[in-house]
Structures are given as C-alpha cells and as structure tokens.
Amino acid sequence: MSPRHSAAEARRTRERIVERGMALASCDGLEGLTIGRLAADLKMSKAGVLGHFGTKEALQLATLSGAAAAFSRLVWEPAADAEPGLPRLRAVCDAWIAYMDTARDVFPGGCFFTTASVEFDARSGPVRESLARMHRAWRRRLAAEVRTAVAAGDLPADSDPEQVVFELVGLFMALNQEIQLFAAPDAVDRARRTLDRLLGPRRESPVP
Amino acid sequence: MSPRHSAAEARRTRERIVERGMALASCDGLEGLTIGRLAADLKMSKAGVLGHFGTKEALQLATLSGAAAAFSRLVWEPAADAEPGLPRLRAVCDAWIAYMDTARDVFPGGCFFTTASVEFDARSGPVRESLARMHRAWRRRLAAEVRTAVAAGDLPADSDPEQVVFELVGLFMALNQEIQLFAAPDAVDRARRTLDRLLGPRRESPVP
DNA sequence: CCTACCGATCGGTAGG
DNA sequence: CCTACCGATCGGTAGG
C-alpha cells in the first residue's frame, strides 16, 4: 500500500502505468512489455509498478482492458449515434480505419489487438482467452449491423453476415500491415476502396 | 569449430536447429525464440547452438530464411506448373490456404510470417527489413499473375492488381486468425468463399 | 561440439 | 510508494 499517497493519487498512477503499457505493448507485444522498462519510463521502482497489479499477467490483463476501453472510445462511440444498419456499419468501419491511421499517440506500434492476438494465438491462458472474447464481441456487433442492413434492404438479401465480418477483419489486418510494415501512403485509400466494394459505394447525402 | 564432427554433420545439425527454431518461432515469435530453449529441446549446449550463427539476430535471420524456403516449397512450387494467369493464381491461393490449414508439423503456431511480421512491424533492423522484402516479393508475384489474368480476359479489365493483392493478403491474415485464435472448423470454407468472390467462381473443368 | 563462465535483465518478494 | 534483495534466464564469450 501507499501511506504517502491518497487513493485518488494511486488510481492516477495506475492509469499512467496502463497508458504507458498500452503504448509499449503496441510496439513490443504484451510479453515484450516488461516491468523494468515500464518502471524506467515512468521513473518509478519496479516494485512500485508491480504493486498495482501483483503479477505480470495481471498487468497484461489490465493493459488489455485499458486498450479495449481506448478502442471503444475511438471506434464504437463515434458511431453510436448513427442510424442502425448500414449507416452505423459504415461509421464504425470508417472510425476503425481512422483508428489504424491516426491513433499513433495511444498505440504508436499500430493496432494493439492485432499485435496482441497474433502474439498469443498459439498460447493458452487468461490473456489469450480475454483477447478471443474481445474479438468475438466486436465481430458480433459488426454482424448485428450487417443483419440490420440486410433487413433494411441496404445490403443484398443473400449476404452472409459472418462472411462479411470475416472479410472486414481481413481488411483491417491488411491495412495494419500496409501502414506498419510498408508505411504505404495510399494504405487508407486502399482500405476505403475495399470497404466500398464490400458495403457498396458511399453516398454523399441520403438519396430517397 | 567442431573437431569431432564432419562438415556434413555440422550442416545437418544447423538444419535441425533452424527447423526447430521455425516451429518454436511460429508459436512464440522470433524474440521468444531463445537460445536456451532451443538448446534444451535439441539436447545441446547453448554455446553449441549459438556457434552455428554467432548472434541471436543471425539465428533469427537464418530461421527466417528456412521458413521462406518451406513457404516456397509448400505454396509456390505446387503451383509452378499451372498455366500463368488466373489458373496459377488460383493454384497459389489454394496452396496458401492449405498451408494455413495443414502445415502444422512445420509451423505448429500458425503462419510463421504473420507472427513474425506483426511482431517486428514496429521495430527496426535487419529482421524487419528481411520480412518486408519477403512480403514485397510475394505480393509482386501475386500481382504479376493478376496482370496476366487481366490480359487474358480471365479477370475484369478494370481490376487493380495491387488492390486484388491487398485483399488476398487480408484474406490470408483473417484465415490465420480464424484458425489460430478461434479454431473455427469452417475457416477454410470461409476463405474459399472469399477467394471465389475475389477471383470468380471455380470451374471444375475448362469451358471453351 | 562441450564446460564454465560473464554481466544484464527477467518476474517477484520482504520489509518499511 | 521505496530500497534491497532473490533465483532464473537472457545473450554471449573464453578456452578447449
């Protein structure tokens, strides 16, 4: 415990650790996220860092939760007010593409969840299971919008929602590679073109 | 050097190290590939392992080369005799999907190159550059087949080869996630359906 | 190819 | 929140 600091100060310190952990893990993965490096970056002792979590695995899970909260704020919340179905689906996908392109301050190493899930997809344990749960939840939400769009006649009646979501996931991972591995200037354009092909061309304003 | 063994024996040992390294790195990444673990698995000393490469980075590069050779053998060679253009493109993509699905003995942790390139895409140095070069070479070869297919009238005349390749890359990465993170039984079916949508439906036999 | 090391860093603990 | 540790493991070297 911290006799010299208030509970609010301790919470704030914990937030700072998680925030820095998210940035580090986006570059070096959740295993490359070491307590010593985190402590040095934050000018704290290793014990001071670890005390907030107990174990490295708990630190990884806390970093994962923090990243999921940031992802919700950057991708889902901006689209929350859009009309359910195709409009919201487009809004979410646009925000997702923007998150890949511009969320460098939060995730300097690119998409945190691509890095972490590829890193853990051949391991076992709570970190992997937490990642799988998050991906499943996001896929479910995307699929629900596809279904609404189909019901509204905004996507072909024979669309397979899971299939559309599978292709969207591929689009986001390919975009991440385009940005991170190749630093391709036209990465976002390419992603948008794929999106238009999957969901139909964008309309500037609603057409009756 | 190895006074007790012939050069051929040394070469064989090096191959064994690289082979085991490919399997380990497909699970734990090229950083998670440690000399100590490799030595223990092969019942060698750490110095015995490292002596074949000199540094860990050289070991990582050798493992990368070995994996590229395996990938060529599994994905490019089976399609080498197919007719250039769409038939060969389909053959390569089919082999690529089969590689994801069945190359478990060589790469038990799934696609080695997805793991390694996501792991290194936010770092700098020779490993990252080597990975980027490999991905670029494969993309070039895929794009060349797309161009041939367009010229032959087997793909729409307005196809953008780089765009098609971008979408194929996404398909392979999404398939890897489907298999590794979700162990989805219908992963290969989904990938094939996307492939049919991208390249047109498969024909059982050539139609005049 | 081995044994026997090296300093650095890992995750984690004791005690204040 | 700190200092001061712990054993284990890291990449790598010397010398045979």
UniProtKB/TrEMBL annotation, chains A, B:
Superkingdom as given in the UniProt entry: Bacteria
UniProt domain HTH tetR-type: residue ranges: 11-71
Keyword set, alphabetical order: DNA-binding, Transcription, Transcription regulation
Extent of the signal sequence: none
Classification via Gene3D superfamilies: Homeodomain-like (1.10.10.60), Tetracycline Repressor, domain 2 (1.10.357.10)
Keyword Ribonucleoprotein: no
DNA-binding region, residue range(s): 34-53
InterPro entries: Homeodomain-like_sf, HTH_TetR, Tet_transcr_reg_TetR-rel_C_sf, TetR_C
The protein's name in its UniProt record: TetR/AcrR family transcriptional regulator
Species the sequence originates in: Streptomyces musisoli
